[in-house]
């Protein structure tokens, strides 16, 4: 793999993703990794990420300098660039000049391996206080900016490279090209990692883990659980049973998409549990968001547990009949993604953290072993795997949807009528966004019903006194931060028109123009 050494900023995940976008497999490792540990992983190349503002700060993370002597190509970025400069005997100065945001850079190394074929003047994204004042002995300076004499350097001989700016950020105009030059040209990596090899590798791994035992998977209607289950099905066929809890808080057509489209394209065995009334009863009279989340999580656990228990009993009966224990349900599939693994410290305790986020918590006392075939993947890669497996676009391409569903998109008490109304509005918004070709541009667009708010309107000849619907379109890379999406007015007009005309009791549509932070993506 390519190792991305995480110096503690939020950029390491982004770098890992950009490396994979260049079709090279990457893994994130902590900055405390030693040269011996690196050697054991036998990496094809190493990228040092950005980090805190100064290499001179107390407790600033340092780099085992021996890593630079392993003969493995290294690219240092921002803090990583400075850590490298310092370790190799260059000079890092406290200039007091901060560069932050879009910054013009003059490239002198337009013939170099790293910055070759790039314009001599380009816009990059910077975020640093210190600067490299002098490149280490034997290094060529490739670029500079107004306040940074050494904004990039290279030693082709030692295969060591560095840039002060953030090539992983889209605001760096030629950022991806820097990474690709490093990976393909400097490190000589072919770029042949893709979803087809991921499937092959995971299928083999699942077969080995599961053997002849039975497996269950909870489907939420979301992308991750659908792709995880499809991979397991590809590996072990009917040893897998999927459980889908219809809690009545789903989007329009979601159940049909799972029961018909998903089953048709994968052939999985599916058990659907009808639990709408149970959830509505449990939510009656509750409007506090945290309380709603807890109730939904708890009911989900109960329902799933009962379904799983029934399957286990059935499997035991079968196993007893065939006088073998091969039919026991030993495994549970989880759609844990790489960011969850990284965010929870790279492995230990991961399953628990994910289960809480995901569906409000899977049973803690369940004794299943976990199968997590998406543990090394990012969301867009999961989508690519899903497409490669032939899953329907309505499932693979769908927006992220919270486990507690529409229950946390009704501000106020959740009732059947309100759910129907919100479902109708949500369906219209999704249809129009898709029709306008905007699905790629937005990360998701929660549609929220302000059930306790009423406003006056006029329709036909009469006064109305109805509820507002909020549109919350956001653009994001990972949902940790987000900006509100500038949707075309025509699309907004169409959605507003249709919702106020077609959805009873809604007489106003408003647009949420708050970024995250300070607003979260969901309203509750
Ligand atoms: P917030 O509202 O925290 O949401 O900005 C960030 C992302 O997480 C989704 N979300 C959830 N997903 N279970 C989930 O599986 C949840 O309880 C949950 N709450 C929020 C949200 O849709 C957004 O993509």
Automatic annotation (TrEMBL):
It comes from the Bacteria. The keyword Calcium does not apply. This is GMP synthase [glutamine-hydrolyzing]. Keywords: ATP-binding, Glutamine amidotransferase, GMP biosynthesis, Ligase, Nucleotide-binding, Purine biosynthesis. CDD domains: GATase1_GMP_Synthase, GMP_synthase_C. Catalyzes the synthesis of GMP from XMP. The keyword Nucleotide-binding applies. It comes from Curtobacterium oceanosedimentum. Residues 193-398 form the GMPS ATP-PPase domain. Homodimer. The active site is at 78 (nucleophile), 166, 168. ATP binds at residues 220-226. Signal peptide: none annotated. Pathway: Purine metabolism; GMP biosynthesis; GMP from XMP (L-Gln route): step 1/1. GO terms for molecular function: GMP synthase (glutamine-hydrolyzing) activity. It catalyses: XMP + L-glutamine + ATP + H2O = GMP + L-glutamate + AMP + diphosphate + 2 H(+). InterPro entries: Class_I_gatase-like, GATASE, GMP_synth_C, GMP_synth_GATase, GMP_synthase, GMPS_ATP_PPase_dom, NAD/GMP_synthase, Rossmann-like_a/b/a_fold. Its EC number is 6.3.5.2.
